[in-house]
Amino acid sequence: MLRAIMTKPGKIIFEDVQVPLVEDNKVLVKMARIGVCGSDMHVYHGKHPYTSYPVVQGHEVTAVVEKCGAGVVDFAPGDKVTVQPQVFCGKCAMCREGDYHICENLKVMGFQTEGMAAEYFQVDQSKLVHIPDELDLDSGALIEPVAVGIHAVRRLGNVKGKKVLVFGAGPIGNLTAQSAKAMGAESVMITDLSDFRIQKAVECGIDFCVNTAKEDLKEAVLKNFGKDGADAIFECIGIQPTMDQAVSIARKGTTIMVVGVFGDIPRVDLGLVQDRELTLRGTLMYKREDFDDAIRFMADKKIVVTPLISRHFAFKDYLKAYEFIEESKDLAMKILIDIF
Question: Where is the Enoyl reductase (ER) domain (predicted)?
Answer without folding.
Answer: 10-305
